[in-house]
Amino acid sequence: MSDFKPTIGIETHVQLKTKSKLFSGASNDARQAEPNTLINHIDFGLPGALPVLNEEAIKLACRAAIALKTKPRLFSTFDRKHYFYPDLPMGYQITQYDQPIIVGGKVEFELDGKLKKVGITRAHLEADAGKSMHPDGKDYSLVDLNRAGTPLIEIVSEPDMHSSAEAKAYAHELYLLMRYADVTDGDLYHGNMRFDVNVSVSKNDALGVRSETKNINSFKAVEKAVDYEIKRQIELIERGQPIIQETRGWNEAKQKTTSLRSKENADDYRYMPDPDLPPIVIDESYVKTAVKDMPKLPDVWRSDLSQLGLSKMQLTVLIDANIDYVECSYLELITEFAQRNLDVKSLANWLINVDIPLRRESKTTLNQYRFKLYEGVLKLVELGKLNSTSAKELVERLLSLDKLPSNIENFAKNSGLLQTSDTKEVEIIVERVIKANPKAVHDVQGGEDKAIGFLIGQVMASSRGQANPEVARELIMRKLKV
Amino acid sequence: MIKHSWLALDKIADSVRQGSVSAVDLTKKALTLIDDNNDYNTVILKLEDRALELAKEVDRKVKRGQDPGPLAGVPYIAKDNFLVYGGEARAGSKILNGFVPPYQASAVNRLEAAGAICVAKANMDAFAHGGSTENSDFGVVKNPYDKTRVPGGSSGGSAAAVALGLVPFALGTDTGGSIRQPSSYCGVFGLKPTYGLISRSGVIAMGSSLDCIGPITNSAADAALVVDVMAGRDPLDATTIERVKEGYVAKPLNLRGLKIGVVKEYVGDGVADDVKQAFAQTVAKLKKAGADVHEVSLPSTKLALACYYIICPAEVSSNLSRYDGIRYGYHDESSKSLEESYVKTRGQGFGKEAKRRIMIGTFVLSSGYYDAYYKKAMTVRTMLIQEFESAFKTLDFLVGPVAPTVAFKIGEKTKNPLDMYMTDVLTVPANLAGIPAASIPVGYNKQGLPIGFQLMSAMHNDRDLLGLAMSIEGLRS
Hints:
heterodimer, A: 9-stranded mixed β-sheet, 18% strand, B: Amidase signature (AS) enzymes, 15 helices
């Protein structure tokens, strides 16, 4: 099996986050809408209706180009792709066939410590079709045109990937790029990004016959579909059966791909230039303006943050979380800490271990006060008023509030989280601990330093973390006269 | 021919604005004239209720002292491929039976805002495919000068209605001559403006890169007024262009010293003697009036018709894809599957000519044939555009006949589609080049059938073209 080399190319449909559709003024956010409520005469394909390009889509395509490490082309055109289906109201899809807005580019990511580069063949603007539904056991189908005319950018990769892990990592990195470039809402559940995975296997340099598994909407499913296809194709070859060039679908429930239609007789889409749409003509200054307010891309964040001493693991978690919970802006927070010479590593730990998990469980809504919160907690730690356990606990409690308390120290105190350096209080505990642990006492007196740690631990435990460990150590050593 | 005679549009509007005539009376008059001339079959639907409502509003404005606009109370007829409130829009095809438009053509909106009132929908070749109205699903229109002859097409209903005097103007569309050729056959003025000057939004598409909206009128001055109201950028049509600053209400041009080119290829063998003669007479008058007339050759015009009958059907096959009966219009209810529904609905809904053009268009766009047909035709189109451009570097206008013959007999060309297509030979070049062109009536043959004279000018030169037409009208008497 191992002497077969898989080759994978991925076409990705990215839904652009424009307010209205690509060629009509109808709303582009169909997530909450009743079927067929977000349509106008253009989306419905009424006679005499003409598409008019939404300029916002050009702007987002420019950003996508920069994210793909290339430049948008200054001249591009629209074509009509013809086929008959009830969810395609005009009988053609408007797409860029001949002169796409993006040609070339690349996506780079690290996998198992190695840098992987996947080339981009092209990316083009196109309008989505509507949605067809075929209710089980009914003799009719239903069509919802809310999605008809939704702007997409279809990004076609080179067949540069050779494992399911690479395919998954590519899909994930592309997702990050498009999210950070603010091109898409990237809501995978609602199909904002859909992956069509082309897989073939071969024992030599010539490419094998490929299958295309369409409309996958998670990274994990990309990985599984590729694995499944590699296995299926190798088994076919080994059994001496031919591989058919075909379109397949991913069945999430059965965890397998299934044949949708054969591509042996390639569909003839009768492409022609769309006479209703003048070419898109832009210039360098247009592109400059379009990408002016574009947020920092993930690779830039990675290099910036790694200079602050954060580990790759930490970066991965933070970069993923930052776009899932945009309103928190974790990365900006870290930058702000760094700029003020505050301890970035502690912050990263709190974010990763407390903030992000809480956010995932929707247990925090406190979005505006994070800088003050973490700055306040850090100050208490640095003053020796909080140990690391209590600091975590304090962060958790603060994040669960609706509003940040005006005085964090008072809040910590009232919550019983502050370390006590009050010698008398600690002394009582120390005496109790010494009495209760004769063996450890004996060991300490016998010169075993480790046993001091144990006793400090006991003091910390019985003080529920409030004792200052330094104070406890001093007291223990004094009492035991070592 | 019983011809009612209307005043010039500005005169009609003035009398309405002054309150000496009511818009309601004018609307009723037009509707009565339509009824009285039913036998010509120019109109397939009256928009009586909506028209009277609009007319009342115009009259109310006059009473309140508001200005209803430069076309106050002027009734008109729109070709059936315009989406107009108040009734079905079928483009002369039964596949659109029952389709009542929920939005209105931009051109109609602008006319309405200027006080004009659409009273009816004109008969036409289905989907504007044809040059005789014989392809209409609502029967052929009869030529006002000879009921045994066609009025031309596809805007035959519009041209015949104006010739009969049912209304003072009508709207048509011109994809390959569909305004100019019927105007020539019916002895009225017809203008195909520069491509994009008037919005196509809400007009049922034929060949989108060729379709132009224009007026059919009794005079160039009337046409200028109507164009002035409709022209200019429309946010609903990305191919529209800015209007010129001076507007389109032109004055007659001084003919002295005007450089006019007679296109050699337009007066060749295929053109009938009576047409040639009328053309030559007008050219002579132009010379006499001081115009500097030259013969000029545009060799690619010979290829224009072939090129047109590739590009246009390609766009037709695409534009007609949406008529599947699923969302509106005719639908075959007996179908048991999606495929059967497509086949039956489209098979029964479309007429012969639409099917012919869908077949041609589908063929020339098919993979393997695209380069040989469509792409080559687009190359020829570019050459043609360049020839026109270079001609207009030295010449102000080009002239030629509008059609090779006068109006032909009903049924004369229905057997042979190529014969029918030949009637477009002198009009399609202007559509392929996107330039403005007009048909101006200049005389009659011995049988009393009208003959038009075609003017062409450079892109965006509509205003001067109308000015020249006014001057030529002055030479008639």
